[in-house]
Write a structure and sequence with these properties.
GO molecular function: monooxygenase activity; oxidoreductase activity, acting on paired donors, with incorporation or reduction of molecular oxygen
Number of strands: 13
Strand order of the largest sheet: 3-2-1-13-10-9-8-5-4
Strand content: 5-15%
Structural class: alpha/beta
Pfam family, one: Bac_luciferase
Distance between the termini: 33 Å
Domain Luciferase-like: 1-295
Region (Disordered): 339-364
Number of helices: 13
Keywords: Monooxygenase, Oxidoreductase
């Protein structure tokens, strides 16, 4: 399994001090968090894409390219690439270039986004969100796999004899996760192409997550990509830790109560009961995370949200130390126990390249 973190890049006042970081400070903090993630042995750093305050990561490939130059091992991903409001030609070019610069340490998670006003800003209609996602990815998929593309659709100008440059590294496109919270159509899309499905379950109860993943697994098998248990699944999660669980709850409560995404809503206690949010000791985080397999099956990627709601950088780095030193090593060991041999590992550029070479050899 791969373990990592994702950020939404919110610029939020610290409710305990009243101070709001500048955009510059927040962007630099995100880079520091990515570097720390590699230092403590995590596998993945992922950033969201937003084009509205209070969020700052409007250009994920710019940030990930900068991080790629300063890291050696960690996989660089997005926790949302907006397939609806971003041109698929530009996505194809940007991520292929990033893939080259990062020596293959790149994948991406496609999503429709959850901010309605973004659509008209980029000339689109939110009522066409699902058709846009389906059509745009159909084009992106071809751009990375065909050297010359002729294409015509509903939402952009046609292409005639078009070649996207640069071509994917080693002829292997970046691996794609289709991210969704509530749309079965996106689970269907992921299954159709044999891509990964990432259920960002941070706001939803386990029974909803279970239904979405089961739909994806069943349809993955239906399209002939393998058995349901061989489908590639990722999950989100949220944690806040202190060695004394009461200290964790006391420290995190003001941040939770004022968070831009769920503040002033359900209580911290209700939210932790109903969603994957875990606030407590490292051992409690381990125990809670291990239960995800009960409804998601054996899955491939677990990402945690840790730097939101105005938490100061110092606190986030402390959280990453605990995650990397005390939590993830135990999770790796425990998730490996009883894992069937036929369940695939999370795809990487190396594994996808090896599979391509084997296919070419067999075909030859």
């Amino acid at each position: 399994m791969q373990f990592g973190i994702f950020t939404v890049g919110d610029v939020t006042p610290d409710p305990t001090t009243g101070r709001t970081p500048t955009e510059h400070e927040r962007l630099k903090a995100m880079v520091a968090i990515a570097l720390k993630a590699e230092e403590v042995g995590l596998d993945v750093f992922a950033t969201g894409e937003h084009h509205n305050p209070p969020f700052v990561p409007s250009s994920p490939t710019t940030m990930l390219g900068w991080i790629a130059a300063r890291t050696e091992r960690i996989i660089l991903s997005t926790s949302t690439t907006l397939i609806t409001t971003s041109d698929p030609v530009k996505i194809a070019e940007d991520f292929a270039m990033l893939q080259h610069l990062a020596d293959g340490r790149v994948d991406l998670m496609l999503g429709r986004g959850n901010t309605g006003p973004v659509y008209p800003w980029f000339g689109q209609d939110i009522r066409q969100g699902i058709p846009l996602a389906i059509e745009n990815y159909g084009l992106l998929h071809r751009l990375w796999r065909e050297d010359v593309v002729d294409w015509q659709g509903r939402f952009r100008t046609p292409l005639q004899g078009f070649t996207s440059t640069p071509r994917p590294l080693d002829g292997v496109p970046p691996f794609v996760w289709h991210g969704s919270i509530r749309s079965p159509e996106i689970a269907e899309q992921a299954a159709y192409y044999g891509d990964g499905f990432f259920h960002n379950n941070i706001f939803w109860p386990a029974d909803h997550t279970k239904r979405m993943i089961e739909t994806y697994r069943e349809r993955y098998a239906h399209y002939g990509h393998g058995k349901p248990e061989q489908a590639v699944v990722g999950l989100g999660g949220q944690v806040f830790m202190r060695h004394n669980s009461q200290d964790a709850v006391r420290e995190f409560r003001p941040y939770f109560d004022n968070a831009p995404v769920y503040g002033h809503g359900p209580s911290l206690e209700d939210f932790t009961e109903q969603t994957p949010l875990t606030v407590g000791s490292p051992q409690q985080v381990i125990e809670r995370t291990l239960t995800f397999r009960e409804y998601a099956g054996d899955y491939q990627r677990q990402l945690f949200l840790m730097d939101h709601a105005g938490l100061p950088l110092k606190t986030v780095l402390e959280q990453l130390d605990m995650l990397g030193e005390e939590v993830v090593p135990v999770l790796r060991e425990e998730f490996a126990k009883g894992r069937p041999a036929e369940v695939p590992d999370a795809p990487t550029h190396a594994s996808l390249s090896a599979a391509r070479e084997q296919t070419d050899t067999t075909a030859g």
